[in-house]
Amino acid sequence: FRLFPLREHGMNWRARPLTCQEIQAFRKSKEVMDRFVRAYKLMLGFYGINLVNEETGELERAENWRERFDNLNRFSHNNLRITRILKCLGEMGYEDYQVHLVKFFLTETLVEETLPNVKRSALDYFLFTVRSKEKRRELVHYAWQHFKPQSSFVWGPRDKLQKYR
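== OGFR factor ==
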């Protein structure tokens, strides 16, 4: 059993991928979804992040963020887990949570520059887990606005990014 199951194989090849029927059953169960949010909050805490609002998915740094961010910067295997969590959020219908988590990592990597070793994963993987095309475009634009140097930004067509909105 996986904490954040997906419809694809992960690193554990013995773990069975989820079926669409299982996802629908999970989403219909209040108990399962409450546990899912608890598991999400637990993992966020491990990464030094607090879920401020369960309705919106809004996040903030936890009190112990410096120590936890140091862990995130030193151990890149966390990036695979974060990608998995993001994909699972989408499967479970928490697309707003996806957006907030990706934006949190884009802000910390590109604006605050507190997670330099997470930047590539945030841009290469985290961004593209967001299911909503519109929200994904907004996040790509946000990343482009804060990326230095802007001329080296390769995650979207420059002409469209300049005209965005």
